[in-house]
Amino acid sequence: MSDDQTPAEEIETAAADAPAAEALRAEVASLREQVLRFAAEAENTRRRSEREANDARAYAIQKFARDLLGVADNLSRALAATPGTDDAGVKNFVLGVEMTEKELQQAFERNGLKKIDPAKGAKFDPHQHQAMMEQPSDEVAGGAVIQALQPGYDLFGRIVRPAMVVVAAKGSGETPSAEPAAANPYAAGDDEDAGGSVDRRA
């Protein structure tokens, strides 16, 4: 309180300044909230840019790898069709193709490209496999892989090409249970059990 102000005047002055102080406090709170929001957005942008850069580095070879899969397939087909012969020249040629295929697969693995080649009886996985056909089978359960027609590949967990497979039809691998005779009302000798009669006088 100044010397020339009475207590009543001091109270009136403080009351007049109260709305201005409240407005300043609200403005400070609003600016603090904006600063925090901008900081959070900047951090999110930094993280997103970093993730996109990492993805770009990791998947930069995806198209190149997809183009090379045809080469790997042709090498596998060539080895599968190798004729059985005692000719030394042919044997050396086949050995060279085998080494080339092995080196190509090792190069794939070094760069994060992994082969998906499901074994017979493996469970069908729609995220990694593409069913080309469905067949009944006595050897594997329904929904399992009977045969892999073409291997698939994934690059750091992202599918480059799904494995093409033949899948066992529903009900495969189950031993059929003998149907009880009473279940068929038209089975021979069951006319009375079926609750009806058959006129045999024809």
Structure in words:
The structure is a single chain. The chain contains three helices and six strands. The protein has helices at residues 7-58, 62-80, 88-110, and strands spanning 113-116, 129-135, 145-150, 152-155, 158-161, 163-168. The longest helix is centred in the N-terminal third of the chain and has 52 residues, at 7-58. The chain is elongated. Strand 4 (152-155) and strand 5 form a beta hairpin. Strands 1-4-5 form a three-stranded antiparallel beta sheet. A three-stranded mixed beta sheet has the order 2-6-3, with no helix packed on it. Helix 2 packs antiparallel against helix 3. With 202 residues, it is of the alpha+beta class.
How do the strands and helices of this protein lay out in sequence?
Blueprint: H1 7-58, H2 62-80, H3 88-110, E1 113-116, E2 129-135, E3 145-150, E4 152-155, E5 158-161, E6 163-168
Parallel strand pairs: 2-6
Antiparallel strand pairs: 1-4, 3-6, 4-5
